[in-house]
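Input record (one chain):
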Amino acid sequence: MPSISNDTITIEVAEKGAELQSLYNNKNGLQYMWEGDPAFWGKHSPVLFPIVGELKNKTYRYKGKAYQLSRHGFAREMDFKVSEQSATTLTLTIESNEHTLQLYPFPFAFSVAYALHENSIRITYQVINTGNEKMYFSVGGHPAFKIPLVQGITFEDYQLVFSEKESVGRWPISPDGLIESTPLHLLRNEDTLPLRKELFANDAIVLKELKSRSISISSAKSKHGLTVNFENFPYLGIWETKGGDFVCIEPWCGIADSVNATGNLEEKEGINSLEPGGNFEASFTVELF
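The corresponding structure, as predicted from the sequence alone:
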């Protein structure tokens, strides 16, 4: 399994899905990634491409033809190849092939790059349109951070701290994974959300139009936590599953279909487009403390 490190951080990345498996702080001896226990959720940090979330009826239409994709797309199940590596950087890449073109009719090259700097890791998604027509896509992260980080405290001892005071609602998720049409109250001129398991009783917290460009996971009972900076991502998911000792902070360039979605790919909320030969990049960082 490819691994890189600096004085503070060591990471391990699986070639399957280019998925970050371990985010270890060499100085304080803490593992910041969820262990991936399959009894609760067997992933660590799946990469979401070429869609984020669920499609209505698991189907989209493009140029009059119907295609099917499972939740979050196929990249997380594909075998990436290491395309670049140095002591503190690692890039893994996939390209479209006969199988992907049956599900998603766009030639592409897609890379996930990891770069370490002091006590932070920068994760960059790069999409290149290698075809002859405009392509449409979404991309996002799904990292699961271990909570609690240290022994002797609980999940509920932690809080999410937004970089700005927010007045936002959460967009509910329907039983079939679609975004409902009306948000529910979450924050009213507040920058702190105490973590409670019941927040996730009905799936993820989905946020749009945040002023904040970073969120910290912290506890008054520990000096250790982390900050996720997501400057280039217009949507954010926050998720935990029953029995799992983690919280996911998910920066998204894209979002699941709404209950009112037409199913046409070009009309999908949050969809990105890229001209032939075009290059799209979006990065987020995770700073450990």
